[in-house]
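Notebook entry, structure prediction.
Reason for the run: the old model in the group folder had no record of what sequence produced it. Starting over properly, with the input documented here first.
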Amino acid sequence: QVQLQESGGGSVQAGGSLRLSCASSGYTYGTKCMGWFRQAPGKEREGVARIKYDGTSISYADSVKGRFTVSQGNTKNTVYLQMDNLTPEDTAMYYCAASNRPFVQTMIPDDYTYWGQGTQVTVSS
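New structure, fully documented this time:
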């Protein structure tokens, strides 16, 4: 049973930083592509970043390029999202997700099968 657990959310002022973590379990390494998504109240869930299981393919949404960095931990069952220079527009519930195949090029929510419960990020001006 695939399980994903996010942590690291919180409240920060504009310009601040947060580091989100996603701990995963229940599957064999090399079989999943990981993604970070966010959903603000009244808005659709949107892709923020994605990373192939071996870290060789990474994508970012235009809105976060240059500010967010996705990476894998040394234990390979943890994915991080480093968020710098945060703005109030980054306020949302952030979710970690995993695909059911090794490589997914998109950040379309429907292409990801497994989801964590989410962690709230609030940025004040």
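Summary: The longest strand covers residues 18-25.
The old model has been moved to the deprecated folder.
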